[in-house]
Specification:
Radius of gyration: 17 Å
Distance between the termini: 11 Å
Strand order of the largest sheet: 1-2-3-4-11-6-9
Number of domains: 2
Pfam families: Cupin_2, HTH_3
Number of strands: 12
Shape: globular
Keywords: DNA-binding
Number of helices: 5
Low-confidence stretches: none
GO molecular function, one term: DNA-binding transcription factor activity
Mean pLDDT: 81
CATH class of the largest domain: Mainly Alpha
InterPro entries: Cro/C1-type_HTH, Cupin_2, Lambda_DNA-bd_dom_sf, RmlC-like_jellyroll, RmlC_Cupin_sf, TransReg_Diox_bact_type
CATH topology of the largest domain: 434 Repressor (Amino-terminal Domain)
CATH architecture of the largest domain: Orthogonal Bundle
Strand content: 25-35%
Helix content: 25-40%
Domain HTH cro/C1-type: 18-72
CATH superfamily of the largest domain: lambda repressor-like DNA-binding domains
Structural class: alpha+beta
Length: 204
């Protein structure tokens, strides 16, 4: 399973926020483990900052807690100046300085969360693909996904169709179909990625 390694400050926020949200929901570690299908040991390690959660683990936890993914990256009471300003502006802006960043160790993908704080029907990310890397871990289910290539060249596979896309090209497809993106060039490729979060999702 791919492991998401956040910069130290983001990892500390995730650890603290998971514990805070779980406690606020009145759930013990064992109860959250049952609801999320994530082991109690793993939850405990995440909350203590010993283990970095995978993308799938984050999705399972936030679904079980019934909160948007952004809630697990919000600074809460000790919020940064950027996030505090965003809330004053109405929680519909994500300042570049406050983007949570992921490094997916196994695949080499680098992800930046673009979605503003709060509950939203769409989730946006900026994903950087180093040469030869691909999205080997995806979430599948009802709804749609899509995006636009900002730089570089990628191979997009959806169901039984494979096409090459490059800078300026956009795409959109049914999220229930098998899909994958792979960098086929010698340069880093960057993609704006969005997904519908309104419906229950299943994992691949």
């Amino acid at each position: 399973m791919e492991t998401v390694r956040q910069p130290e400050n983001d990892q500390a926020v995730v650890s603290r926020r998971l514990r805070e949200v779980r406690t606020k929901k009145g759930l013990s570690v064992n109860e959250l483990a049952t609801k999320s299908s994530v082991s109690a040991g793993m939850i405990s390690q995440i909350e203590r900052g010993i283990s970095s959660p995978s993308v799938k683990t984050l999705e399972r936890l936030r679904t079980a807690l019934d909160v948007p993914l952004t809630d697990l990256f919000s600074e809460g009471a000790s919020d940064s100046e950027e996030n505090s300003k965003a809330r004053r502006e109405g929680n519909f802006v994500r300042r570049s300085a406050s983007r949570p960043k992921f490094l997916v160790q196994a695949s080499g993908l680098r992800k930046e969360l673009l979605t503003p704080e709060g509950q939203h029907d769409l989730q946006f990310m900026l994903i950087h693909f180093d040469p030869g890397t691909s999205s080997s871990e995806v979430l599948m289910g009802a709804g749609e996904k899509g995006g636009m290539v900002l730089t570089g060249k990628l191979e997009l596979m959806v169901d039984n169709h494979t096409v090459e896309i490059q800078e300026g090209d956009s795409f959109q497809f049914n999220s229930a179909l098998a899909h994958r993106l792979r960098n086929v060039s010698r340069e880093t490729a960057s993609v704006i990625w969005f997904m519908d979060t309104r419906r229950p999702r299943v994992e691949m």
